[in-house]
């Protein structure tokens, strides 16, 4: 069932929503490849089991308490209510949890490097919306090695807005660990709340390992199937998810092109015949974001090869630079990202210079925005990029790994790119 195309689409849609906080965080903060990969896998598994539960409940709605099939009108009403719960109410709470959990996981990774040189302090949002039981933990100050943080690093519940910050040891008195743990145990004292007793950073998980979506006993399975039960529908679902998640390794052939054993097929769109393949040695620290940016291209039929990168020292350069990211339809591409606003035009121009130095003819500039950009900023940036980099042939301007516009040098020289960008960015 989970391998069926409509079901896979639902899993992928859920995963896309829940993994978005992680991808946004990774763009602006340093997140290790291992942590990001683990959190992405955890989110995918959670999305799969969420879908499994939703479809199981949907099947149970076919019949009434009397064992007879319901009239279609009643079944439709029940299904609409189920959809609102899973993909409205639940999804909103899960998205908020994923946002807080990924932030804490990334911060924990940084704190672990410092050891107990600093203390950590638990803080609520400190307003009239804070739950009374969470208020009891506000100001709790303990070293990272204290067992308190193994179970009570925020978030400690759905829609919990608590956080933890690193503080200087001399600035705040250290709390009594036993009393802090006792107080925290009080806010997660029911079975439904006890699932939140985990550390996203230490366990490298976004969602609670003992969440009711997951089969009992598989919280520490690690996908090794040591706790696999062939009689469990949920374990069988996990096997199906694993097959969906696994990516083919070379040698393989796609769209008439052969790839050897050093390549992985990351994504393919059977409708457009576009695909993304990644060669071993393509920068692990940027592979996830590059695949995300390449996906809209593949969906429009582009053949994207994320190639092995090398660090070289070019003539006239004091520092070593990396070679380009990709071949896209046999053109030489480099992927760049920016979250600039005030200096967007300058940022695009500067990155274009880097692209040419890295041996690429085409720049993909993926713009992540906190505000709505005026088209004049993008126009100015594209103009700067072409004006000062004569070897640059094309620019792919993309908004948040989604909609994009290709501008070539001919369009720049004729001035038609201005009209094209204005039309593209008009709501």
SSE topology string: HHHEHEHEHHHHEEEEHEEEEEHEHEEHH
Can you give the mean pLDDT? Answer: 87
Number of strand elements = 15
List the uncertain runs.
222-228
What form results from the Cα inertia axes?
globular
Gyration radius, to the nearest Å?
25 Å
What is the SS-derived class?
A: alpha+beta
- What topology, given as strand order, has the largest sheet? 6-7-8-11-12-13-14-15
Percentage of residues in DSSP E strands: 15-25%
What percentage of residues falls in helices of 4 or more residues?
40-55%
Separation of the first and last Cα atoms: 39 Å
Describe, in plain words, how this protein is organized in 3D:
- With 427 residues, this protein is of the alpha+beta class.
- It folds into 3 domains: 5-218 and 226-244, no CATH class; 247-308, no CATH class; 313-427, Trna Endonuclease, Chain: A, domain 1.
- It has helices spanning 5-28, 33-60, 72-114, 132-135, 148-152, 177-187, 191-194, 200-203, 233-245, 284-298, 344-357, 375-387, 409-414, 416-425, and strands spanning 119-123, 141-142, 163-167, 252-254, 257-259, 263-269, 274-279, 303-306, 311-312, 321-322, 326-328, 331-338, 362-367, 394-399, 404-408.
- The chain has an 8-stranded mixed sheet with strand order 6-7-8-11-12-13-14-15, with helices on both faces.
- Helix 12 links the parallel strand 13 (362-367) and strand 14.
- Helix 12 packs antiparallel against helix 14.
- The radius of gyration is 25 Å and the shape is globular.
- It starts with a helix and ends with a helix.
- Mean pLDDT is 87; it is low at 222-228.
């Amino acid at each position: 069932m989970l391998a069926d195309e409509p079901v896979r689409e639902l899993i992928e849609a859920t995963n896309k929503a829940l993994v978005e906080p992680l991808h946004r965080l990774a763009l602006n903060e340093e997140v290790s490849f291992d942590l990001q990969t683990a959190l992405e896998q955890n989110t995918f598994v959670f999305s799969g089991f969420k879908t499994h539960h939703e479809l199981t409940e949907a099947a149970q709605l076919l019949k009434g308490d009397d064992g007879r099939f319901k009239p279609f009108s009643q079944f439709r009403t029940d299904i609409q209510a189920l959809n609102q719960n899973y993909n409205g109410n639940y999804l909103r709470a899960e998205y908020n949890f994923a946002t807080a959990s990924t932030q804490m996981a990334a911060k924990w990774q940084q704190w672990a490097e410092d050891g107990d040189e600093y203390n950590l302090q638990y803080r609520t949002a400190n307003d009239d919306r804070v739950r009374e039981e969470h208020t009891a933990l506000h100001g709790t100050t303990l070293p990272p090695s204290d067992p308190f943080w193994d179970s009570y690093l925020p978030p400690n519940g759905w829609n919990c807005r608590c956080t933890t910050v690193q503080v200087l040891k001399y600035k705040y008195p250290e709390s009594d660990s036993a009393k802090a743990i006792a107080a925290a145990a009080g806010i997660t004292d029911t079975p439904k709340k006890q699932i939140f007793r985990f550390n996203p950073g230490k366990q490298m998980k976004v969602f609670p390992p003992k969440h009711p979506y997951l089969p009992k006993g598989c919280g520490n399975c690690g996908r090794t199937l040591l706790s696999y039960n062939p009689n469990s529908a949920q374990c069988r679902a996990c096997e199906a998810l694993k097959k969906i998640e696994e990516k083919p390794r070379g040698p393989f052939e796609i769209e008439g092109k052969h790839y050897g054993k050093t390549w992985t097929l990351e994504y393919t769109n059977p409708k457009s015949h576009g695909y993304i393949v990644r060669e071993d040695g393509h920068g692990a620290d940027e592979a996830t974001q590059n695949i995300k940016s390449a996906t809209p291209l593949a969906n429009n039929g582009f053949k994207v090869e994320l190639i092995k990168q090398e660090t070289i020292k070019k003539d006239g350069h004091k520092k070593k630079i990396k070679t380009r990211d990709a071949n896209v339809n046999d053109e030489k591409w480099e992927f760049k990202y920016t979250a600039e606003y005030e200096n967007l035009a300058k940022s695009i121009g500067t990155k274009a210079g880097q692209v040419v130095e890295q041996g690429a003819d085409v720049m993909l500039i993926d713009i992540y925005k906190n505000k709505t950009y005026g088209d004049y900023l993008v126009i100015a940036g594209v103009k700067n990029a072409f004006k000062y980099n004569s070897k640059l042939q094309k620019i792919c301007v993309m908004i948040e790994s989604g909609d994009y516009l290709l501008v070539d040098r001919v369009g720049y020289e004729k001035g038609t790119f201005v009209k094209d960008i204005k039309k593209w960015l008009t709501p």
